[in-house]
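Friendly challenge for the regulars: who can give me the structure tokens for this chain first? No prize, just bragging rights.
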Amino acid sequence: MINNPAAFYSKAALNIKRSEIRELLKFTRQPSIISFAGGYPDPKTFPIKDLEDISCQILREKGATALQYGPTEGEESLREEIAKWMYREKSSIRPDNILITAGSQQGLDIISKTFLDPNDIVILELPSYIGGLQAFNAYRAKMVGVPHDDEGMRIDLLERILAELEKEIQKPKFIYVVPDFQNPSGITMSLERRQRLLEVAYRYEIPILEDSPYRDLRYAGDSVPAIYSLDTQNHVIVLGTFSKLLCPGLRIAWTMAPTEWMERLVAAKQGMDLCSPTYTQLIVAEYLKRGLLPKQIEKIRHIYGEKLKVMLEALEKYMPQGVSWSHPKGGLFLWIELPKQVNTTNLFPKAIKNKVAYVIGSAFHCDGKGTNTMRVNFSYPSEPQIVEGIRRLAKMLKEHI
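First reply, four minutes later:
Bragging rights claimed.
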């Protein structure tokens, strides 16, 4: 028996941290707990009947191919359909710019594996998506957070940070942003900020990683052009996914990158899994080919739009003074800020006792701050659960504050 297994781990393995969200979700499995913690889609939105029909067709007509290994880049039919989908915003995208991944989290890992050495700098939003923090941390990157306001990342602070890094002869490997209905804040980056971000990226010659899982989930207001659609100098890599539009169980997502970077990305993926599942790729390709996605998105928008409205009304009705929250126009999340003295990590066990759960805000901060914040999800719980869950949360906060 080996007495000290940790002595055999690589430095990279020792550096990997378990997701705080996944750890917290262990406490939310009790049926009596109303959970705002996960980013789960509502199962009522899953197009089960369509997927059942398509699955049978794929097995009947393409069974030998569907159950076999496929190319690392992904099935050509799926890459063609994704390129057509992205053509809405940028006509120059081709299937060769698309790499199929098993969820966009694998895309983050592939990007990190391809671009990052230990102590390389990644610029990101503050707060930022915890899956991004986890991926970059696994490759021992140094993360530098840029605070945001209601219009997204503050570009004035970004310029100040980049100027300081340039003095120290340190060049970030990329700037990571979730510009549409950001996870965790729900904020959408304004058009002016997107344009300025590109200008700064061009000036300093830094790639932008645009993570875009929620872009089509807008429930109010006008759409803002995607950053990649504004890019004229091949600076932007995009992560997209069908987990929020169809269902996460298919594990189909994609990375869109300029041709000059694609070869290295494909090589990085090849060493991970050889290829993504052929069967689910062909299912999604046929779903897109049938033109079913726009109707599916409208269904989701209606359901989630109503849930968001219910949550905002419940927050307004029940929350005590001193508590504020974001007012997103899409996505899956709201961001709640409490008085400075309140620590949401310390409060979490009390929330579980009150049969309600959230995600602690510090988990989304690369600098360990945000201890007085929390993220809540409105897509998964039912409308009555949203009202009751917010009532329970507000009652607990009133007592604590």
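The domain at 8-47+295-400 is CATH 3.90.1150.10 (Aspartate Aminotransferase, domain 1). The mean pLDDT is 94. Your move, everyone else.
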